[in-house]
Write a structure and sequence with these properties.
single chain, mainly alpha, Ferritin, about 0% strand, globular
Length: about 210
């Protein structure tokens, strides 16, 4: 039990306060930096800050869901998805720095809220736990798709990162479905969208 506590505290500290690392190459590493106006750069920075915040929330969700998953197979599925989300953290964090900005001040708040949601989802049972994962990835994928439309057209570096993230999220969504995810009720989906709206609005600016 003590080992599990230490392991999970370590995840929290690394996610919030340590630079994330990636195993795969940065999607934008061979893409040249584009010329952008200050307004365009500020908008791209805000969108990438939102994406980074979303990955912080994903880490917390998967951590909570893995803690309360009933089977080892499902625990491993959540841990695998979390590892790819760590890479997303690294990619978005670097892009934010390249654009001259900082990550969201509210990340600790979003992390703890998402961790509580993840634990609660797991306590409902594995099919609902996986259903929550499936719907989360579905909404995140749509969210990333909207960012591809909003990003400055010439910002190929940010686009390369968001495109790869979107591909990974789709894989996670399909994984949850294959493992037996239950479809969430409409009110739950609506509540998730409202929560995401609050997070994106604040993290875009701060």
């Amino acid at each position: 039990m003590l080992d599990k506590v230490i392991e999970n505290v370590d995840v929290v500290l690394r996610t919030l306060f340590a630079p994330a690392h990636t195993i795969r190459p940065y999607p934008d590493q061979n893409v040249p930096e584009a010329q952008m106006t200050e307004k365009e750069k500020k908008h791209a920075l805000g969108l990438m800050r939102v994406n980074h915040c979303g990955e912080v929330c994903a880490q917390a969700l998967y951590q909570g869901q893995a803690l309360t998953a009933r089977t080892q197979e499902n625990k491993e599925a959540f841990k695998h998805a979390a590892q790819e989300e760590v890479e997303h953290l690294a990619w978005t964090e670097k892009r934010i720095r390249d654009l001259g900005g900082n990550t969201s001040l509210f990340n600790p708040l979003w992390y703890m809220g998402s961790l509580a949601i993840g634990v609660s989802a797991g306590l409902l049972g594995d099919k609902w736990n996986l259903g929550f994962l499936e719907e989360t990835e579905n909404q995140v994928g749509a969210h990333l798709g909207s960012h591809l439309k909003e990003l400055p057209e010439q910002d190929a570096k940010s686009r390369a990162i968001v495109t790869q993230m979107q591909e990974d999220e789709l894989k996670h969504e399909h994984m949850a479905r294959d493992f037996g995810a239950a479809a969430l009720p409409f009110p739950v989906k609506a509540m998730m969208k409202l929560s995401a709206k609050a997070m994106t609005t604040l993290s875009y600016k701060f």
